[in-house]
Design goal:
mainly alpha, globular, 3 helices
């Protein structure tokens, strides 16, 4: 199954906004369980995509969902890289 077409739905601006909002939620709102952060950034991704495209359609919703959820993966990548770097420095 080839899912490489999804790269066409990745929007860097939406990923960046969702990454920042997800980081703020994780660091500043202690009452929210980490398992809800992907859902939060997915919804925010949809809203940002609708805002930037000024329309609601299935491709726009997919762009928002995919970009919002990609931000959680990007956060995990950065976290793992930073942890690996600090572990090797010690």
């Amino acid at each position: 199954m080839d899912i490489s077409f999804l790269k066409d739905y990745l929007e860097p601006v939406t990923v960046g906004i969702c990454l920042c909002i997800g980081y703020i939620v994780k660091r500043w709102i202690k009452d929210i369980n980490n398992k809800f952060i992907p859902t939060i950034v997915a919804v925010i991704g949809i809203l940002v995509a609708i805002w930037t495209h000024r329309s609601i359609s299935p491709p726009v919703v997919l762009r928002g969902l995919f970009s919002g959820l990609a931000s959680t993966g990007l956060h995990q990548l950065f976290t793992r890289l930073i942890q690996r770097k600090t572990d090797s420095d010690a």
